[in-house]
Amino acid sequence: MSIYPPEDRIWWSKPVEKTEMLWVTIAFIWGLIMFFMMPYWHLTGNQNLSNEAYKITADSFAEKTEAFAKKYQVRVEGENDIPVVKPPAGSDIYMLGRLWDWWPILELEKGKSYRLHLSSLDYQHGFSLQPENINLQVHPGYDLVTTITPNSSGEFGVICNEFCGSGHHTMVGKIYVKDGK
Amino acid sequence: MTSPYRVCPDTGFKVDLAGEKLIKWNAVTAVVFLAIGGLLGLLVALTRWPEIHLLNADDFYMVLTAHGFVILLVWLIFFEMALLYFASSILLNVRLALPKLAWLGYWLMLVGCLITVVVVLQGNSNVMFTSYVPMMADPGFYLGIIIFAVGALCGCAVFFATLVVAKQEKTYEGSIPLVTFGAMTAAIIAVFTIASGAVILIPTLLWSLGFIAYIDPLMYKVIWWAMGHSSQQINVAAHIAVWYAIAAILFNAKPLSEKVSRFAFLMYILFLQLASAHHLLVEPALSSEWKIVNTSYLLYLAVMASMIHGLTVPGAIEAAQRKLGYTNGMFEWIRKAPWSNPVFSGMFISLVLFGVLGGITGVIMGQEQINIIVHNTLYVPGHFHGTVAAGTTLAFMAITYWLVPVLFRRELILPGWAKWQPYLFGLGVAGLSLAMMGAGTLGVSRRHWDITFADAAIKFDHPALAHLMMGINGVFGVIATIGGIMFVVVIVGSLLWGENRDEVSAAAPAPEAAPTPAPSAMSGHGSAGTMEVPGTFTFALIFLAVFVLYFFVNWKFLASTWGLS
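The joint structure predicted for all components is written out below.
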């Protein structure tokens, strides 16, 4: 009776029934499999985060992103003239989060890799690439570097999925992925 | 020293009157906050139902902040204080130590949570329950939580002091009961939780007052979640103790093995706090090694513990039922269980939903790489409504159906409502939990007012199926709310107007909700550990198969997305 003290005062020396022991063993082994799945994926899988990040000030990140956008801008879009930036494959690309947009719009090529830098100029934001459903946390003061390789083409939304104030639900960005020639 | 007590005619426990009063006040306050928090939750669900979209954006974020705080901290911790006093004072037949400190704790908790709730409802502190810096709330927001936590710490101290008094006055023989051991696990985790909360919330309060210039947002999250996630581990330890208690009360069930069950609780103390990392798997500047070790609770030893409890609680019931003669086939013991008794149905639904909806999803989305396709989507609230609403809340409802007639001596009013309530509430939370997980899998964000992005400069819309999921979430939210209201009406109504059972004639049959455990039945046989439990083991294997399958389905999902390195 679990609401009374154990009847057997020396309960710790009672043998464990074999079905229960079997279950404990199964649970332990399943835990090991789940645990080793993560390092295994680092060795063989294609979806891992890099562990590469730098401390950075908001001003400095904004400067880098503006220089990047200016250098590779191909056109502007929308009523706010948001630059659409088409960087060369393999290059460092930047997207900043702020109240309340993701800036600039990126145009990438399918199957090519890019070093994506993400940071915030104010609050925390959630980089959420849809409909791929890739989600990264974006902090002010930290430059998160992830090498991305799009394996599908089309128009992708970047929504914010970390609550960032009253305009949170209007914070949307965009990434185009074009098929390679 | 003796203090006024009575002997419970149903259980034979010596009930310390000062302790009983504290149990009652804490439990009733908890239920009142459950009612408030639940209705706030309904407003959230109705706003996220695209066709209804009830509140405006600012009100929605305010209500969501209040909903998270009131349910995740206030309702649960108040109820856990009642459980701690119950598991120490009543189960050990001892006076509650330091009742004045317990009352101080009660009032601090009440004042603290009211401060925070009032500040949130003033509308300048829409920062969500997590209040991630550098988003700033009014100082009262943090102050209220700190005062609340100090109150909860007083409650933990009273619990530990009561254990000491019981030991000194030799009110029990041998080891403390398993349920008390589980409650002690919860209390130890609570102390760790409150310490972490103090470490992060006190500087944050000073920051909001202007005394500190800067708090690193990443550091804030690491420590905040040592409070935020650990506080949910208090719930896990507490509601598993409740499962064991109900199995013992209704079936005279003994754990299959004291040793294994206590070892499993010990694993919680050692490893559950590492789960702070669950919220940090896609953050910058934390290494994969750190993430993997912590998110797995070190080789999933705490998950092993939960899987042990998941086997041993129904296993104990099966063993007890088989002893009563329900031995036909694999499953007669469960078919013939008292399904119309809300104490049992609530507990068993809690166990199943916690394991399947909360447990499996929590472990899988806590895998370092899988988290990339889950983080901050609605999948996350889908998971924790499976753990906290379906698991903990339903377990606490179930034990309340026993506490009211047996300890508080009131007949339940509306027994028909009580009978159906766990099913309705369970259905509601299971449905909304699954709908949120579905929407999250489709990319819908949590804490988001408008999934059509109507006011955004750049257009985006989710697939139609995601909108459907949000509608389904709303429908089940309404069902869960009806279930919640039924619970509150039955419990509060019974306490106010239920017949006093001690005044009812002795000839009246014991109510269904308060079956009388017969202490004589516990003698004569040894440990339940010698019994075979084939039915439970079959359930466990089915659970494992679902777990393994869903685990690899998620890796398959992940493997199809963009390359990330």
